[in-house]
Amino acid sequence: MSTGTDPLAPLAQLPGVPDAVAEVRKAVDRLYGHRVMRRRAAEVTSESALRGARASAALAGADWPLEEVRRRSDFGADPEARTVGAALRIAAEAGQLLSIWRHSPLQVLARLHLLAVGDGDPAAGRPRRAGEGAEALFPQELEPVESVEVEAVDGPPPVLPPAPGAEEVAARLDQLSRLLVARAEGQGVGTPALVVASVVHGELLALRPFGAHNGVIARAAQRIVLIAEGLDPKSICPAEVGLAELGTAAHRRALAGYLAGTPEGMAAWIAYSGRALRLGVRESTAVCEAMQRGMV
């Protein structure tokens, strides 16, 4: 397979996508060039993981203040605490799974699910079987933060269709895995990282392959792709923060575009993903500025 036969290549040429890719690249490069990154990159990575986990848990229905997440040590008391704990465990290990991801993405997804639910769950680490359902992706609505401009759209956000059945999930997961492994082997490498990460994120949200924690897992997979594709090798750009800042209504509208599969819907999803990533860059830039001023 050459870059010309990469099935994702046409997505990179959709209207608005090249601009989104360029804007993300510029923002990420600026963050990586920050003075703090020369001396304290590991600290920025750690803080990015914490803030990304907090935001991912918020999207999954556990919207805790950052300092509450930072200080807590017990995450088994109630459903919200378990959601936060799942997001933290996944964030802590996701970056260590890169070598496995390159040759077996499905093994990594299974590991992320196991981290989320614990090995005491009989469904841990395996996709849904026939007749098994999946939890809602957005159990509560998150309003966009005041500093984020959100495009005004008339009417309520769309109701997402139910998750596909187990047979379709297995087939599409296999197809996604083959595509990612081919990229890791140097095939189809011309497609920008933002496009690949957006597709992986969107596909996992569409499939909801596990009974629970699909959103948290999909966002972690997006982060792994951004690392693997070389856009964010130090994992300092928490796109999850941007997704939470934009709010769940915007998330549902953009995801509906992905699910529709039209050129317009796919372009809108990729552009939305780029915007979330730039907001994540803004978050880590603020962290770097605080470190430079001696506030962290």
UniProtKB/TrEMBL annotation:
The residue ranges of the Fido domain are 104-272
Concerning InterPro entries, the annotation shows: Fido (IPR003812), Fido-like_dom_sf (IPR036597)
Name of the molecule in the record? Oxidoreductase
